[in-house]
Amino acid sequence: MAETISINGTAHPIPDDPRITLLDFLRHDLRLTGTKKGCDHGQCGACTVIVNGMRINSCLTLAAMHEGDEVTTIEGLGTPDAPSPMQRAFLENDGYQCGYCTPGQICSATAMLGEIANGWPSDASETLDGPIEATGDEIRERMSGNLCRCGAYANIVAAIRGVAAEEGA
Amino acid sequence: MSVHFKQDEPDTSNRLDDMKQGVIGAPLPRVEGMAKVTGTAPYAAEYPVENCAEGVLVTSTITRGEVTRIDKDSVLSMPGVIAVIDDERLITRPAQGTANEAPQQKPKSVSYWGQPIALVVAETFEQARDAAKHLKVEYREDEGAPLSPDAVEPEEQEGETVHQGDLAHAMAQAAHSVDVTFTTKGHSSAAMEPHAAIAQWDGECLTVHASLQMLNYNITELADAVGLAESKVRLISRFVGGGFGSKLGISEDVVSASLAAMQLGRPVRVVLSRQQVLQCIMRRSETTQRFRLAADENGRLTGFGHEALVSNLPGESFAEPVLQSSHFLYAGQNRELMLKLARIHRMTAGSVRAPGEAVGMPALEGAMDVLARKIGIDPVELRLRNIPEDNPEEGLPFSSHKLAECLRQGAEAFGWDPGPRKPRHTREGEWWVGTGMASAARVHNVGEARARVTLKADGTALVETDMTDIGTGTYTILAQIAGEMLGLDPDKVLVELGDTRHPRGSGSGGSWGAASTGSAVYVACTALREELARRAGIAEDELDLSNGRTQTGQTLTDLLGGKDMAREGHYEPGDIAADFTASGFGAFFAQVRVNRFTGETRVDRMLGAFGFGRVLNHKTARSQCIGGITWSIGAALTEALEFDPRDGHLVNCDLAEYHVPVNRDVPDLEVLMVEERDPAASPIQAKGIGELGMCGGAAAIGNAIFDASGARIFDYPMTPDRVLATMPVD
Questions:
Q1: Residue B334's beta-bridge partner residues?
Q2: Beta B268-271 vs B53-59: how paired, if at all?
Q3: Annotated catalytic, B32?
């Protein structure tokens, strides 16, 4: 049986060329182009996807390293007919301009709220072991790995805070 | 049918205000937003093209000289490698904005470190990348290329020079004067989408999906570069992942992909690496700027001097227009302005968001703060006292002028303390806290534009133009203009952009897209309304089409009678530019905290108040403003290109080393839009918005650093080392 990787619930064979990053596997081999390449060096966050519930930069990992993993991309979070609450919040708050960093921002924000719910502290947290609120500073700190050159940060934070409030985070 | 409108006179009719649909200006979400948030909007590199080969550019490792040999055999036997393209038509620099012709070609002649010299094409990206690293290249280096602006005798840009009255005398007689020199480091646009192209050649016609801002010029530049007639070239840029000037002109990826596709007879994709984007597209020039400000005892300027030094490669006409707003922003009868250009062998200098004012205004507004402190008056008041009645050099009236309103309303909304106060007035723990302000100014530009608007028989509308949406909101605001004029909800207006098969728009650049192409849509809609009015038997200026029905009850579909109706609007700026000085104006207010021990600066809050004509969509306009303010934070605190003094190569050529603002650098931002109608700016009374938000904002932060910590810094960005070295010791 071939070694496979699960992308948005569908199993795909691991590619032959070991040099293929998870990002290029998604964009090129699978034509899931919602995941963006901004720097290819883990510096911008545009390629953020969710692997087994954790957000990662898909440019910094090889497809061959993900046998048996569950990968969720922006296409797996929602569709134009059925967008996720985070996708809808970005739309309503104008949490983007050119749209290129947006799928990475949304994947990152979606997983990030889970990190807050799990009580994982950040540099902005008051304590290391207390419950954590999704304050503006927490969100800004935790989203600083996702660059937006259009400068939509203020709206991105507003979008995420809205979703966090709805989810009671 | 094409309808031409050339604006030679102010248009005070404000026709959009007479319409009844009520969508113009409304804060509608972007019409293409759902595609962006679901990852279904296709950018240049993402079109599914069968049998597409992958190209990777090889760049020079010398500064100046000749490529004497490219050993193609060194890579042709590697797996998957198809070809090494070293065609003489490859371009070595991007075209400058609105160049309308091919930029520098002949890749064997090297003029800067990092210049593209060849393209390696292979079956897969991984194969092409590997081969590009292994390509053996030999050079003959021409040593001694000047690399620093102070290494050469600069060229005076004579069109910028002003000698008016006697500034030296005014300085000598002044009750208060300052003579200070600021420096700014180079900037990179660093758009999130790297430059990318997929070229397809069918033996006769070239089709390229690319990431470009100004297709109306780019098609001419590409046709010229590869030697084809424009009619044989098609460019498509439906989604552009940010531009900020870096995609104004045709770039190396586009021409190399095109030549490879033409040579190989199969599609070729070329995507620049992030490092290549920074090294071989455009830099904003570093600047050195001297100010001489002479004022009377009441703080009224009697003399104004601004001299600037910038740099570029030999052969480039672009010189960062640092003085642009200095020519008219403040009074002062005795004036000396001069711009000099040093020819050096760093990468190409060109347009980065708000060329000129992005660095000229922070320096000028820093100098004004020094003057205000010296006189001992409120810096807001100093600016209010120096707003000229007319352009102080040309005597022209202003088309509209909201600086005073922006200063006053901004100060009130921010809770500005007019003083008097001394620096280091507030300390919270290890942080000094202070506030600063600055004026904003950015010249208003417009360009010729065409757009076709078709009323479909079913009562919907289609807008077509090769104009682009680079995140600015073009799709949405054109739908709003057409919807307002034709009585349609914007979701009944389909906007198709970014395809040279459509009428030629203005392109996106210099903040001119909305006013220019928006006016073309307006002209087309006016012509459609005239025909509809004729059919309805109602005078056009009385015709109410709101919600698809005239005031006499006829429906739009009835008037169309089962047929489509199309008009092409052709807008031309006309002679009005010679009659008025047109600019956007505004004011910035910032509160910062400066760490006593590390020199780190954090922006606590920031407000911008802007007057830029009619606002077409309050949501997207505000986003443009907060984007500009975010760039102001980067320019003030972190953004700086660093060049190796030995070979001139850009050292910090990625997003880990070139520091654009990150989320935590940007606090909640407040934007006040001071609404106005500028009758001379455009027939839709709108002016440019996209750049004004970063034209001076860095000075509000720099001036706040002084107010907080007592560190008066004359060099942007104000990094912790500079703050620490300048801050008085406790």
A1: B303
A2: parallel
A3: no
**Architecture in CATH for domain A85-167:** Orthogonal Bundle (1.10)
Which architecture characterizes domain A4-77 according to CATH? Roll (3.10)
Instruction: Tell me whether residues A94 and B29 touch, CB distance under 8 A.
Output: yes
Q: B489: closest CA among B24, B34, B17?
A: B24
Q: pLDDT at residue A1 above 60?
A: no
CB contact under 8 A, A97 and B242: yes
B617 touches chain A (CB under 8 A): no
State the span(s) of chain A assigned CATH 1.10.150.120: 85-167
Question: In CATH, what number is assigned to the domain containing residue B427?
Answer: 3.30.365.10
Torsion of CA B158, B162, B166, B172, to 10 degrees: -90
Q: Considering B276, B307, B329, which residue would you say is the last residue of a domain? A: B276
Rounded to an integer, the average pLDDT of B264-293 is: 98
Contact call for B125 and A103, based on CB within 8 A: no
Read off the tokens for B696. 């001076």
Residue at B50 is within a domain: yes
Q: Taking CA atoms, what residue in B is nearest to A106? A: B37
Please tell me which residue of chain A has the smallest CA distance to B632.
Answer: A151
Q: What is the ipTM of this complex?
A: 0.98
The residue segments making up the domain with residue B211 are 44-144+194-276
Give residue-wise pLDDT tens across range B16-50.
999 999 999 999 999 999 999 999 999 999 999 99
Contacts of B622 in chain A (CB under 8 A): 94
**Total tally of structural domains belonging to chain B:** 3
Q: Output the pLDDT for position B613.
A: 95
Residues in B touching A82 (Cβ below 8 Å): none
Starting at the edge strand found earlier in the chain, the sheet holding A54-57 runs A10-13, A4-7, A70-72, A48-51, A54-57
Query: For residue A169, what pLDDT is reported?
Result: 52
Tell me which chain B residues have a C-beta less than 8 angstroms from the C-beta of A149: 189-192, 242, 244, 660
Q: How many CA atoms within 13 Å lie on the side-chain side of B593?
A: 13
